[in-house]
Amino acid sequence: MANAFHYSIGKKFLQAISGAFLVIFMLLHATVNFFSVIDSLNGNFGLSDGLFAKGCEFMSLPIVTIMVPVLALGFIIHIGYGIYLTWYNIKARGGYKRYEVASKAAADSWSAKNMFVLGIVILGVLFFHLTHFWAHMQLEEFTGGIAADPYLLLTTTFGSVPVLVIYIVWFVAVWLHLSHGFWSMLQTIGWNNDIWLKRFKVLGILVASLIFLMFVSVAVNAYLQAHGIIG
Question: For the whole model, what pTM was predicted?
Answer without folding.
Answer: 0.80
